[in-house]
């Protein structure tokens, strides 16, 4: 078991199950069991995991699985549709997920906006075909997000962590800024270091919205692969299959800005190592072990 004393008090380190099994491309990691994922995560030294498609969604089944490996649940993704539907409908759609997160002592819910995306299979569509929210609709969307966040906090004691994401309505720095300049402060930001895939450096979000960051995904990017994906106008899923993403330390991203932010700010919560890649090409246990060592070294330098 690796020591986590390199992290500031109140900051914890988790790993996403995406290194073992992809949530969308179900052939990636289809033969890897949940038990293997949890065993590997604990052996590498992580304190928690996020939800994945192979996880049970009942506390009575999930809690003992995590407890047996000494792991906590950091959070889990909710596919939200507030770009197109009412807050009451979103609350109903999120209820079971929110119940589970609350029961598992989570403090945040990861929110990914999946409405207003390219028709058909949006993550397979060329990246140039991403739908962009009209400027005139942002204010109403921000109002719905704010109301949803208030109700999520009031009814479940969960903070919404809004996930900017490729192929979704808030991909670019300008789109994220426009939205967060309009929402209430109840809406928290999930900082994803893989923002390079959207063409900007993630530290710009730290500078602009550091006080809104409530959850952090640590994802690295293989820049040459990413550039080729953009040049060939491939889809998000094709980029994943090509190896566009990897774990911290295996790609081109400098994680020093996020380490400084975590050390010098009031941030309290989870850092989550995340890499959507093919486990048959990038064996998960060595990869997440390297990521742990990379982060330990990086934070150790900044003490």
TrEMBL record:
One MF annotation (Gene Ontology) recorded for this entry: isomerase activity
UniProt superkingdom: Bacteria
Keyword Transmembrane part of the UniProt annotation: no
UniProt keywords, alphabetically: Isomerase
Entry-linked InterPro entries: IolE/MocC, IolE/XylAMocC-like, Xyl_isomerase-like_sf, Xyl_isomerase-like_TIM-brl
Ranges of residues in domain Xylose isomerase-like TIM barrel: 40-295
SUPFAM superfamilies according to UniProt: Xylose isomerase-like
UniProt name for this protein: Sugar phosphate isomerase/epimerase
Native species: Rhizobium leguminosarum bv. trifolii WSM597
């Amino acid at each position: 078991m690796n020591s986590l004393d390199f992290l500031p008090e109140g900051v914890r380190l988790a790993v996403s199950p995406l290194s073992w099994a992809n949530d969308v491309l179900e052939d990636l990691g289809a033969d890897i069991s949940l038990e293997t994922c949890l065993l590997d995560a604990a052996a590498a030294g992580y304190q928690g995991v996020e939800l994945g498609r192979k996880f049970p969604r009942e506390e009575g089944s999930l809690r003992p699985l995590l407890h047996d490996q000494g792991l906590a649940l950091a959070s889990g993704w909710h596919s939200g549709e507030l770009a197109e539907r009412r807050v009451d409908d979103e609350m109903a759609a999120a209820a079971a997920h929110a119940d589970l997160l609350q029961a598992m002592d989570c403090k945040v819910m990861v929110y990914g906006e999946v409405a207003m995306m390219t028709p058909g299979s949006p993550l397979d569509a060329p990246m140039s075909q991403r739908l962009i929210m009209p400027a005139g609709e942002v204010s109403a969307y921000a109002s719905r997000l704010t109301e949803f966040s208030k109700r999520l906090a009031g009814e479940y004691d969960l903070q919404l962590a809004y996930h900017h994401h490729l192929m979704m309505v808030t991909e670019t720095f300008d789109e994220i800024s426009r939205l967060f300049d309009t929402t209430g402060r109840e809406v928290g930001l999930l900082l994803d270091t893989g923002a390079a895939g959207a063409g900007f450096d993630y530290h710009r979000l730290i500078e602009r919205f550091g006080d809104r960051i409530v959850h952090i995904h640590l994802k690295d990017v293989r820049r040459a692969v990413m550039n080729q994906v953009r040049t060939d106008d491939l889809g998000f899923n094709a980029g994943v299959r090509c190896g566009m993403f990897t774990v911290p330390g295996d790609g081109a991203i400098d994680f020093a800005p996020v380490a400084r932010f975590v050390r010098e700010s009031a941030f309290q919560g989870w850092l989550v190592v995340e890499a959507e890649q093919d486990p048959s090409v990038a064996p998960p246990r060595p990869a997440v072990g390297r990521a742990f060592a990379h982060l330990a070294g990086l934070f150790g330098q900044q003490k």
